[in-house]
Amino acid sequence: MITSSIISPQDIQAHYNILNRIGCLGDQPDKGFTRAAYSDEETAVLAYFATQAELIGLHTDWDAVGNLCIETKDKHEHWVECGSHVDTVPAGGNFDGLAGIVAGFVAIAALNQLPRAYGLRLRIWRGEESASFGITSIGASAALGLLPADSLNNRHAGRSLAEAIREQGADPKFIEQRQSTISQCELDHIAAHIELHIEQGIVLEKETLDIGIVSGIRASSRSWISLQGEFDHSGATPMGKTYRRDTNLALAHILVALDDLFSSYQKENPSIDLVQTIGHINSNKEKNEHDDELYNNAISKVSGYAYFSYELRSCDDILRNSYKKEAMQTVQNIAASFGVTVEVESVSNSSGVKALNQPLQQRMRSICETLHYKHRTLASGAWHDAALIAQQKRSDQSNIPVAMIFIPCLKGKSHSPEEFSSYEQIAKGASLLANLMQQDLNDL
Question: For a Cys-Cys bond, which of 83, 311, 337, 422 suits 123, CB 3.0-4.6 Å?
Fold first, then answer.
């Protein structure tokens, strides 16, 4: 094992000096970035790493759906991988995803000429963000044969996903046929898969820590909840539930009741792995364009229609689904007490990763102690491509060992121009990654 921090901030900065220009919305990186899935900007970043890889004697391979693999050329039966994405949300930052790719590239470059038990691979996935085509982890899902064929009809910036894929030289037929680009044999020979990512939260910064060792990856359940009451004259209709079926009033009580429900769960288990969020209240632009009833509300009317979005996230699907059942019953009960009916439209329901590989987590702790990195264990509140790898099975039905490394980001900001992680922080994460990738992992 390497016993020192081998990646320098200068190693990281050398790549960012170039990457800060690709997809930047102004003359400085703090203006924000837009690199949509299957855009020219996303492809330009992949092409940059392909060129850099070839310059230092690494092998490059573009799969049929546009993902890029960078590998050492030595012959090994098993491989240790790292990976992430380079696309952004509109006007996002240049660290969400990209920090993991830069860290992975410099780690493999540092290890390329050193003795190892495994081949090393960097996977650069297309389109992890759902902002472009309304789908999360497009490239990873397509590579694993998991992306539904009808997703090719999803549109962004005036083009379908199928059109965007073709424009970037890839082949949507693999998605149409649910054909994977990663064979079962390739999955069987992954010794470990590791993703480095900014935390996208404020825990590490607040606790002045260098590293977060990720215990699990939360997935979400998302719904639209619509309330139907009765429109009435605001002055002529007496107050009270006997006369009014007021959806806005019902909605207000529902939101408080949901918060009380969560508080009761949290009181019983202060460290409960569950978060709930009301993101929209009568405010989704796309929904409002097709929902005329909302605009029947008026300053002089009792509200007869309202809606809100409801999201739950947890690493534990059983906990999340159990809580959701109770939450939906709470919504129904409160609505009924106001004479209001409820319609629930499920938007998505994905599976989380309750526990990432424990031996890998322990190895990361040991390396952090050796490198004198302050660290803690925490769950990932956001989804990552690594979750899909963790959900795959080898031929013997064993799980592929998967780990995630978090590094701090300024004020916990992400998906905005304020997103920032220093070159020093990325270098520490990359040094941990390099140490981990060089280890003998036969006992995982």
Answer: 83
Q: Calculate the alpha carbon distances from 130 to 167, 228, 246, 362, 427 in Å.
A: 19, 30, 35, 32, 28
Give me the domains of the chain, ranges plus CATH numbers: 9-200+379-438 (3.40.630.10), 219-349 (3.30.70.360)
pLDDT tens per residue, the chain (444 residues)? 555 668 999 999 999 999 999 999 998 899 999 999 999 999 999 999 999 999 999 999 999 999 999 999 988 999 999 999 999 999 999 999 999 999 999 999 999 999 888 999 999 999 999 999 999 999 999 999 999 999 999 999 999 999 999 999 999 999 999 999 999 999 999 999 999 999 999 999 999 999 999 999 999 999 999 999 999 999 999 999 999 999 999 999 999 999 999 999 999 999 999 999 999 999 998 889 887 889 999 999 999 999 999 999 999 999 999 999 999 999 999 999 999 999 999 998 999 999 999 999 999 999 999 999 999 999 999 999 999 999 999 999 999 999 999 999 999 999 999 999 999 999 999 999 999 999 988 877
3-state DSSP: the chain helix, strand, coil percent, rounded to 5? 35, 20, 40
Distances 126 to 36, 82, 141, 143, 266 between C-alpha atoms, Å: 9, 15, 10, 10, 37
Does the global pTM surpass 0.85? yes
Interaxial angle between packed helices 98-111 and 423-438, expressed in degrees from 0 to 180 and rounded to the nearest 10: 50
187 sits in which H/E element? helix 184-188
Question: Which two structure tokens, joined as six digits, stand for 284?
Answer: 């989704």
CA count, 13 A, side-chain hemisphere, 257: 17
Q: Regarding beta strands 190-198 and 402-407, do their DSSP bridges make them parallel or antiparallel, or are they unpaired?
A: parallel
